[in-house]
Design a protein that fits this description.
The protein has helices at about 10-25, 40, 75-90, 170-185, 205-215, 225-230, 250-255, 275-300, 390-410, and strands at about 5-10, 30, 95, 100-105, 110-115, 115-120, 120-125, 130-135, 145-150, 165-170, 190, 195, 200, 205, 235, 260, 265, 270-275, 325-330, 335-340, 345, 365, 365-370, 375. The protein is of the alpha/beta class and about 425 residues long. It has 2 domains: about 5-130 and about 345-410, 3-Layer(bba) Sandwich (FAD/NAD(P)-binding domain), CATH 3.50.50.60; about 135-340, FAD/NAD(P)-binding domain (3-Layer(bba) Sandwich). Helix 1 (about 10-25) packs across helix 9 (about 390-410). The model is unreliable at about 415-418 (pLDDT under 50).
Length: about 425
Amino acid sequence: MRTTTVVVGAGHAGLAMSWHLARRSIDHVVLERGEVANSWRTERWDSLTLLTPNWQSRLPGFGYEGSHPDGFRTMPETIAFIEQYAKAVAAPVRVHTRVTAVRGRGDGYEVATTDGTWQCDTVVLANGACNIATVPALSAAVPAGIATLTASQYRNPRQLAEGGVMVVGASASGAQIADEIQRSGRQVTVAVGEHVRLPRIYRGRDILWWMDRAGVLDERYDAMDDINRARNLPSMQLAGYPDRRAIDLNSLTRIGVKLVGRLAGINAGKAQFSGSLRNVCALADLKMNRLLNQIDEWAAANGAGESAPPPERFEPTALEASPPLVLDLTRGAIRTILWATGFRPDYSWLEVPVLDRKGRVRHDGGVAESPGMYVVGLPFLRRRKSSLIDGAADDGRDLSAHLASYLDSRSSPARPAS
């Protein structure tokens, strides 16, 4: 089978790229291992909602048209939205077609699948950044009798054993899951590492409204002093609750969650925590206030603050005087450990030498080091919003333009490849 471009993955990023390719009349196919929006269907917990408001679900040629723009989609609603998009743009998706290998062949690529092999000139990797849960090596020392699972395996509190739960990680997933489990009646302890604290509502508006209007989410990768650092920042500590409440550490401690420092080791059945909890929280508070200062400055310069409530600052993260540094896991207080320690992409099928030592594609704003190969849907790919649904349109536009230029250069011997 032959086509110009193969897109691997039919999530929102792959479908957005398909829209842009179609607009440029570039022949292509979108290969999906399961159904459209497969990761949303199979790797999310039951109560999860998008942390972005409905109005921010903007895909090229498609957006929110309901009566609740400031609400938050549930997982079934998110899946339906992406399904509707695939149908609306008539994306050439082949479902239940797992890619088993991508290899360089001549001046193009060979894409082997469970349903045949494709020959193509260009490849777009749109399989996402959250395929495999990252679990620290120290997990091997968890005592027998304590159940462990990852955020992608968690569905609801009913699947957990009775008793205490330690959630390792305090970014979006860790904070939301800790909140739900604590409210189910179990005692939760959160091991807190680096996190990004944000208020849900600021000066009467959703914080993402301010970040969108002030241009924060459009900050480009090539303007960052340290793009690798920016790409590895934890996800925003936000949740899409109907009451639009905050999900910071203060909200967790108010309902009884206990906070400890970063899990540094497990030795002889005892969990050992870093003593830097206070510093980590102070840094998160400092960065939040810097962002709020940036928003206030933009609002003042653009007249956006005239009709809004005045600037406000939030209480610093409250911690007990001496958070414990050791917790004996053999005493039965903790029955489950949930790893909310991040994810990484799965490129085990990629046989082109573009992966770094951590198994991530080496790229410049989505342009991989192998000519004609592209990647979409990764954190801060080209903009701060790249990992959000809202970021797929702009990134896809830029990369489809590069891809088209690359194809043009191949057909014109007088012009070198981009």
